[in-house]
Amino acid sequence: MWCRASVLSLLGRTFRRPDLLQSNKPLVVGSHWSHSSSQPTEKWQLMSAVCLERFPVITQEMNPLEKKFSQLLQTMEHEKSHLSDHELRHLEDLKLAEKRKQDSVDDSEIDVNLLTAVEEQDAWEDEREAFQPASRLTEADTKNDLRSIERKLDRKLLLVVKQKLGNSTPWVMPMVLRMEGESMRQAAERALTTLCGSELNAVFMGNAPCGFYKYRFPKLKSASDDFVGAKVFFFKAQLQEGLLAKSSDISDFCWLTKEELVDCLVPKYNAAVQDFILEL
Q: How far is it, in rounded angstroms, from Cα 264 to Cα 249?
């Protein structure tokens, strides 16, 4: 409640500023005086979507700067490191060979069944040359199979589906309407199992959404209590194993990188998704 001294002080400041008396704006004393809005509250549907990620399987190739820095670290480590057991053994072999030249070696120092360090190193080199590492490119990369999780093994992939929503089938992340009594995360879990099958094993990362997007429905000649649009909350999940089994509402699906999402998602939807996708 305003005390008498405060009201008098306010009136005194008002009289010192005649522009306030000439203004048509109402004089408001106290922040609790406000005009009530007469606009009706809009009704929005709540939806939960799953941002299902397949994490990289192999490391990414180093760029020129990373290769140069890695070589520098290896050189510094080699220069500051102590001799390994193999290198110490090689020095002992050299001493023993020198004694043999001088005929001063004792028979007890010779082991005819023991390989020298050089001979073992030659065997290791032969084994290394026979080893053929697997290719970084898979058959899915060669065929450009966007439905395979075996593609782009060094990149994070994200699941997008062509889902039936009303009269259209846009490319989106799997999403469903929230049902009465369930949390937003429970709705996201239901979206994954009902739309993509129960064989997909995924781990959800927390109970809080990682992103948000809203869109308005097309204007219809319906009653005033219809929903004006939908608010979509995204929840992140990491794929562990399993294959996707499409439901009747899914006509197609793809596993795409962050950059490839631009080609299939609606621009505004893609902008909302790009905000919470991190590439490490």
A: 18
d(CA 280, CA 274): 14
Using the structure block, give the residue that is written with the tokens 């739309």: 195
Closest C-alpha to 226, from 80, 44, 60, 99: 44
3-state secondary structure the chain: CCCHHHHHHHHHHHHHCHHHHHCCCCCCCCCCCCCCCCCCCCCEEEEEEEEEEECCCCCCCCCHHHHHHHHHHHHHHHHHCCCCHHHHHHHHHHHHHHHHHCCCCCHHHCCCCCCCHHHHHHHHHHHHHHCCCCCCCCHHHHHCCCCCCCCCCCCCEEEEEEECECCECCEECCEEECCCCCCHHHHHHHHHHHHHCCCCEEEECCCCCCEEEEEECCCCCCCCCCCCEEEEEEEEEEEEECCCCCCCCEEEEEEECCHHHHHCCCHHHHHHHHCCCCCC
Structure tokens at 128: 């290394």
Q: Is the pLDDT of residue 180 over 80?
A: yes
Q: What are 109-143's pLDDT values in tens digits?
A: 555 557 788 888 888 888 888 888 888 899 999 99
pTM of structure: 0.70
Task: Give the angle subtended at the CA of 212 by the CAs of 206 and 213, to the nearest 5°.
Answer: 150
**Strand 157-163 versus strand 44-54 pairing type:** antiparallel
